[in-house]
Amino acid sequence: MLRGRDRTYTLPVDYLGPAVTILGVVVIGWLALDGRDIGQSVASIAQLLIAAVVFGLAVYYLLGLIILEGFDYHGRGARLASEVMLVVIPASVAASVVLTAIRT
User: Is 76 inside any structural domain?
Assistant: First the structure.
């Protein structure tokens, strides 16, 4: 039975992954939709593309975590997904901030 076994989902990365993903998507969306030239410049279009791709990845990631949690799976795949999102989201936020500075 799994009740006596030490589970690995209590690690901080397992909680940070979804939190950083949700917060990052909100920040990236806000940066992409901020300003008057939405879709009028190359930087704005790049921001919109980054926001769309990150939103798709976030939905895929969060739904995957819900499905894996339903099967009580807490292995390498779930941890790897969290670690990947902890790299992709901050990099996307940084790129979006740079593009916002270029746009203004």
Answer: yes
Is residue 58 within 8 Å of 25, Cβ to Cβ?
yes
Domain housing 60: 12-103
Percent helix, strand and coil across the chain, each to the nearest 5: 75, 0, 25
Let me know if residue 7 belongs to a domain: no
What is the tally of structural domains in the chain? 1
| pTM exceeding 0.90 | no
Digitized pLDDT (tens) for each residue of the chain, 104 residues in all: 445 455 555 567 677 888 999 999 999 999 999 877 787 889 889 999 999 999 999 999 999 888 887 887 777 877 788 888 889 999 999 999 999 898 87
